[in-house]
């Protein structure tokens, strides 16, 4: 069981700006210019994102979703990174970045459609500068590198104009760090000095495989071999995630190239609703990580050090209830796609042979209905 | 229209025609970029991109790291950003490391985004055998792609088609896999003044007795067969399929309704190859016109052989004539 012990040992040089007990830590290399009101807004994000997640878990159990991939425990890594983005930066998620989607103003119901089976993605990535969820592990990191190549060719790096300079944020997990696509993306990013920031949420588990299955070195050290910096942050610390991602994005926009951020965190729930983690990991690990909860520490800071009162927390709880109603009712009201839509958007222009298949299908549907 | 290069004049090799076509796409659309292994200074191992980096710069014609998944995956990202990438896969057998990106991403992202994202990516693949190469340099992997939704797959057989089809493929807003018959790179022909439709088959030799359907490198062989058969008093019709996906079977069905006989020829292995799908569609549409079973002349269901055996493995004039004889004698 030594892997379990090793897996939850943070690195000594891990960047942490808010301790699990809610104490601020100042670091000269990652100064964070932030007001308590702004920390209060991050708290709101964290609470609401967790609520979306817990409602989705419940909806899956009630049979309203076919599947759900819970982000429980990873809210801080995602909200910090998501709030570090500027609106014109582009973001490439996996299928678990519900917290980043929230920061990019993607309606949670859009995400639910994918898991309910009413769409295969279904949103316009340009509206939110948030690409579609990618289910094939690691594939999106290459798309992010290619997008960043386009940014470079558009002359949108290192101009000094904050409205023009653009960075790309790519997410992946500890499991994906073994994928060729992720490693090839690192090669491209380094070779072309791309304006890209990788956030690896190391939640310790690739379904049932502990991170030691993927790597014998800390994941953030992988980037050194490719020739760009990497560092580890406390992934349960929203302030560390915000400060470090913000600086890495600034570096990317100004032409200083890629950064790998390993957000050291823990997947508190199962891989997805179909998984049973009691078969492969110790309950005591989960208990250890509960003490590092990403939300409790922000609440402790706000109430103890920033003087936020019960009214503030009650207002967010009320907002959370309203959001839950929206998620529950909205999910049940998601319309099933029409049968004819099967053939939509397979191509920009549907070729003749597919038009014939569609007509054949429509005739059959009509014949059964009559 | 100043600054646009003209349609190649006189006899042109397929390689030069492709080069001219690519040059024209770079001139016409500033979003076109050409990427792949050795496509820059070297001009590609077959020199298809010769001189393009010199004339259009390293931002638009560039060498990539040596990783095919990376070539395709970054092309997807470039396309999301608004570019129109043309990827060169150096040899047919090298496409498989990029296969996941092609099948799971290139072919599906337009659908996944409900039409919001267009991926106007052209993936050029020199394919087929007959050049005495070592393993993985003579494959015909087209059926993997025609089986996968969201991809268009075309192949040229002449310099004229090479010039026009590459221009049309690059201009298409859907992803196109563009198979180039590498053993025909040095064959010469005249380039037509105007293109035909990209996704249509073409009758390249009219005939009355039997239809031979071929594509890519096998069109030339099929025409040779027709010449030999003509000496024996048999009038063969030869159809160049050109578009493998969408599969245009209208011309072959119309032809078989007249001739009653069909021989399908491709280099790729037989089982579940294009010939199987074509045969299925023809019998569905022209069952009562058939005078004989549909026959296929293809590579065998083995790995591509060492080059000293490739002439035996590949469909050749004798094997196709044998099939013609069997069909007509049925």
Could you give a quick summary of the protein structure above?
The complex is a heterodimer of chains A (370) and B (330). The radius of gyration of chain A is 21 Å and the shape is globular. Chain A is α/β, with parallel strands linked by helices and 370 residues long.
Characterize the structure shown.
The complex is a heterodimer of chains A (370) and B (330). By secondary structure, chain A is of the alpha/beta class. Chain A has helices spanning 2-7, 36-61, 75-84, 98-103, 108-116, 125-128, 139-153, 180-191, 222-226, 238-253, 283-290, 294-304, 310-333, 352-369, and strands at residues 90-92, 168-173, 196-202, 205-206, 209-210, 230-234, 259-264. The longest helix of chain A is centred in the N-terminal third of the chain and has 26 residues, at 36-61. Chain B folds into two domains: 11-190, Rossmann fold (3-Layer(aba) Sandwich), CATH 3.40.50.970; 202-329, Rossmann fold. The termini of chain B are far apart. The mean pLDDT of chain B is 97. The A-B interface holds A 90, 119-126, 131-132, 136, 139, 141-151, 153-154, 180-181, 184-185, 187-188, 191, 344-349, 351-354 and B 33, 59, 64-65, 67, 69-70, 72-83, 85, 97, 100-101, 104-105, 108-118, 149-150, 152, 173-174, 199, 246-249.
């Amino acid at each position: 069981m030594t892997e379990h012990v090793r897996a939850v040992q943070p690195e000594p040089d891990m960047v942490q700006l808010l301790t699990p007990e809610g104490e601020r830590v100042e670091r000269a290399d990652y100064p964070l210019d932030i007001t308590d009101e702004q920390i209060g807004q991050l708290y709101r994000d964290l609470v609401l994102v967790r609520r979306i997640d817990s409602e989705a878990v419940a909806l899956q159990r009630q049979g309203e979703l076919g599947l759900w991939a819970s982000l429980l425990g990873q809210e801080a890594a995602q909200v910090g990174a998501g709030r570090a983005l500027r609106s014109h930066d582009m973001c490439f998620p996996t299928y678990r970045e519900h917290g980043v989607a929230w920061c990019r103003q993607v309606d949670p119901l859009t995400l639910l459609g994918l898991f309910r089976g009413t769409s295969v993605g279904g949103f316009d990535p340009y509206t939110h500068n948030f690409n579609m969820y990618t289910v094939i592990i690691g594939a999106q990191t290459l798309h992010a590198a290619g997008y960043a190549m386009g940014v470079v060719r558009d002359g949108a790096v290192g101009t000094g104009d904050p409205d023009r300079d653009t960075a790309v944020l790519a997410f992946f997990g500890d499991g994906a760090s073994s994928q060729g696509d992720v490693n090839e993306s690192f090669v491209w990013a380094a070779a072309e000095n791309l304006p890209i920031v990788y956030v690896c949420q190391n939640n310790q588990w690739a379904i049932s495989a502990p991170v030691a299955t993927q790597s014998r070195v800390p994941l953030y050290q992988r980037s050194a071999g490719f020739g760009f910096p990497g560092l580890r942050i406390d992934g349960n610390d929203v302030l560390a995630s915000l400060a470090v991602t913000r600086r890495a994005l600034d570096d990317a926009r100004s032409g200083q190239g890629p950064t790998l951020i390993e957000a050291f965190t823990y997947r508190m729930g199962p891989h997805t609703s179909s998984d049973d983690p009691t078969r492969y990991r110790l309950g005591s690990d989960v208990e250890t990580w509960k003490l590092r909860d990403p939300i409790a520490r922000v609440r402790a800071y706000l109430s103890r050090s920033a003087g936020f009162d019960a009214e503030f927390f009650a207002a967010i709880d009320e907002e959370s209830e309203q959001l839950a109603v929206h998620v529950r009712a909205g999910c049940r009201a998601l319309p099933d796609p029409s049968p004819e839509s099967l053939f939509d958007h397979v191509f920009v222009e549907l070729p003749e042979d597919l038009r014939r298949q569609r007509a054949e299908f429509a005739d059959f549907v009509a014949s059964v209905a009559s | 229209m100043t600054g646009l290069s003209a349609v190649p004049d006189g006899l042109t090799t397929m390689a030069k025609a492709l080069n001219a076509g690519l040059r024209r796409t770079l001139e016409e659309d500033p979003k076109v970029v050409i990427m792949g292994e050795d496509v820059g200074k070297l001009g590609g191992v077959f020199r298809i991109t010769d001189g393009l980096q010199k004339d259009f710069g390293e931002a638009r014609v560039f060498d990539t790291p040596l990783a095919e998944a990376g070539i395709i995956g970054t092309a997807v990202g470039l396309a999301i950003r608004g570019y129109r990438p043309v990827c060169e896969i150096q040899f047919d057998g090298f496409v498989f490391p990029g296969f996941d990106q092609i099948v799971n991403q290139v072919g599906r992202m337009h659908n996944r985004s409900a039409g919001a994202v267009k991926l106007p990516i052209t993936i050029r693949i020199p394919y087929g055998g007959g050049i005495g190469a070592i393993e993985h340099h003579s494959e015909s992997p087209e059926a993997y792609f025609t089986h996968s939704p969201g991809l268009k797959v075309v192949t040229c057989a002449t310099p004229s088609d090479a010039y026009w089809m590459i221009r049309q493929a690059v201009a298409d807003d859907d992803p196109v896999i563009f198979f180039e018959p590498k053993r025909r790179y040095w064959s010469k022909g005249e380039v037509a003044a105007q293109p035909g439709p990209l996704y249509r088959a073409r009758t390249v030799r009219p005939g009355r007795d039997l239809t031979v359907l071929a594509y890519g490198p096998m069109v030339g062989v099929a025409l040779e067969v027709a010449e030999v058969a003509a000496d024996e008093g048999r009038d063969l019709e030869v159809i160049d399929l050109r578009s493998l996906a969408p599969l245009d079977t209208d011309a072959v069905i119309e032809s078989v309704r007249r001739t009653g006989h069909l021989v399908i020829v491709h280099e790729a292995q037989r089982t579940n190859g294009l010939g199987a799908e074509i045969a299925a569609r023809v019998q569905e549409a022209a069952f009562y016109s058939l005078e004989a079973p549909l026959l296929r002349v293809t590579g065998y269901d083995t790995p591509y052989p060492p080059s000293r055996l490739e002439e035996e493995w590949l469909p050749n004039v004798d094997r196709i004539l044998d099939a013609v004889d069997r069909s007509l004698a049925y």
